[in-house]
Amino acid sequence: MKKHVLPLLLAMLLSPFAAHAQGMWNNPRRSPQTPAPTQPPVSFDLTAMNFSFTSRELSGAYSQRTAVVIEGKGKDAVFSGAGVAFSDQRLIINKEGVYLLKGNLEDVTVVIAADAEEKVQLVLDDARISCSFGPALYIQSGDKVFITLPEGTESSLSDGSEYDAAFSAEGLDAALFSRSDLCINGAGILNIQGNYRHGAVSKDDLAVISAQVRINAPGNGLEGKDCIRLSGCTLDIHAGEDGMQSDNQEDAHRGFIYLQNANLSITSGSDGIQAYTVLKTENASVHLSSGGGSSQALTNDQQSFKGMKAGGDILISGGEYILDCRDDCIHANQSVTIVEGVFLLSSGDDGIHADDALTIRSGEIEIQKSYEGIEASVLSIAGGKITVQASDDGLNGAGGADGSSMGGRFGRGGFSRSTGSIDISGGSLFITSGGDGIDSNGNITVSGGDIRINGPASNGNNAFDFDGQATVTGGTLIALGSSGMAQNFSYAENQGAILCTFSMQQPGVQLALLNENGETLLSFAPEKSFQCALITCPALQPGCRYTLTADGKTLTEIEMTSLLYSGGQGGNRRNEWGPGRW
């Protein structure tokens, strides 16, 4: 474990700064009115989070016959009916009901100021609202506001690049700003241009159902302080800071984001999607680029450029995720669970990271570029098709919080404690690594799956590396790489494991394991040169002979007298002879 001493020393020397960094979880580029969040809650109750939608949110229905119709006439408006007033460039709705707004309002702000228990539905029927001195739409009060977009319509909201002192004093900073629960629904289109700071902000719940919303803003694209819930909608967000954010710190049951059958396209200067507690997705489609993408240098500053990020857990069930991120593509300060889905990930740091547990049950995961591919304190893979390209470790099981999880960071990596585990019970894995192929600061258990490791050429790394114990009871593994730090399994049951070193083999040479009858049991042609092979499969049994070949030429003959075998030429192998070891 060549790289753990220096990070540990740094952590000791810089512990005051590290402690300070723990309180810098969020992007520090926030407005002066909003301090950076502190560390997320240690625990929270998923059952208390509202991952559902009301019938009125889902329907988007309204009665045009009973609605109060408002027609924008440039700097003026025409309307009839109770609950509407127009004064001093402000169109004010102050009573519960349904209001249908169409036409153009120029240099006018629409204000909804209903009683605390009242609900307002504002139907935008090809309405265009622009305001040079404040938000285009300001929801000041009310129990809940519905912004409904009828099918076949396209409406727009645009605020000013500077706000009047009265609006600034109230802390308003978005083209669409709400202090009440907000739901955007219907089958129409809404374009939001944030010129001052953010696109759409709700200081309470924010839901988007079915609608198509396009947001462009120099700050955050979409904010829902208590939560963001999306269902069946299409969002296209271009944001200078976070694409989407929910940041309630006071309530452990809030600050979450839920994506259900939602289609998201996000380009963000900072984090793409950021939930303070939980990020949960079900059959979502997320195409995302953060911080300029994985081609950008990841420096030691306090900026966060992650793709999908949560201060608590990330729960993914189905969908498609194409992420190109300057920092981690998927990052949780607690756990990540992937049940199903298709993932195409490119990262300037980790492909998928969890400070605590990371579980992959199924899905297709291709990490095209990363520093470390998949990293967690407790890493469990039970299924799926996984391909990893990593300049350092492919899989990394290590304990402690990753420094890159907070705003402050010391660069790539960050795990420092000599704890961690990796458990592989199913799935197929193909790993190409510049560092260790599979690396655990603690134990490794292989009980199933099909694993191929196109490992490191450097003798300072190893295709298969652990500090504790490595156990195999099932599955298939071929790990090819350097011999300098080679390790065999510590314990084998049901099937054997062999570790062999030999003369350097060139990239593309086909390594094959043959049984006594000359039948090929396993074969692998790696993309890198190699001089060491770790192999296990159910056919490896004591009392049998095997042959290891390279492009059909014999490298070594193997006679298994026990379940663990080591042989070949040289190598600084770190296992020791003894009971249960090679």
List keywords for this structure.
582 residues; 4-stranded antiparallel β-sheet; 4 helices; 46 strands; 4% helix; disordered N terminus; disordered C terminus
What is the topological layout?
Elements: H1 5-13, H2 15-21, H3 55-59, E1 68-74, E2 76-79, E3 84-87, E4 90-93, E5 97-106, E6 109-113, E7 119-130, E8 137-141, E9 144-149, E10 154-158, H4 165-169, E11 174-178, E12 181-186, E13 189-193, E14 198-202, E15 205-209, E16 212-217, E17 222-224, E18 227-231, E19 234-239, E20 244-246, E21 256-260, E22 263-268, E23 273-275, E24 279-290, E25 308-310, E26 314-325, E27 330-332, E28 336-347, E29 350-360, E30 364-369, E31 372-381, E32 385-390, E33 395-397, E34 421-433, E35 438-440, E36 443-454, E37 464-466, E38 470-481, E39 491-492, E40 497-505, E41 511-514, E42 520-524, E43 530-536, E44 545-550, E45 553-559, E46 564-568
Parallel strand pairs: 1-5, 4-6, 5-7, 6-8, 7-9, 7-10, 8-11, 9-12, 10-13, 11-14, 12-15, 13-16, 14-17, 15-18, 16-19, 17-20, 18-21, 19-22, 20-23, 21-24, 22-24, 23-25, 24-26, 25-27, 26-28, 27-29, 28-29, 28-30, 29-31, 30-32, 31-33, 31-34, 32-34, 33-35, 34-36, 35-37, 36-38, 38-39, 40-46
Antiparallel strand pairs: 1-2, 3-4, 38-43, 40-43, 41-42, 41-44, 44-45
Could you explain how this protein is built, in words?
The chain is mainly beta and 582 residues long. It is built from 4 helices and 46 strands. The strands form 2 sheets. The chain has a 42-stranded mixed β-sheet that branches. Strands 42-41-44-45 form a 4-stranded antiparallel β-sheet, with no helix packed on it. Strand 44 (545-550) and strand 45 form a beta hairpin. The longest helix is centred in the first third of the chain and has 9 residues, at 5-13. The two termini are 20 Å apart.
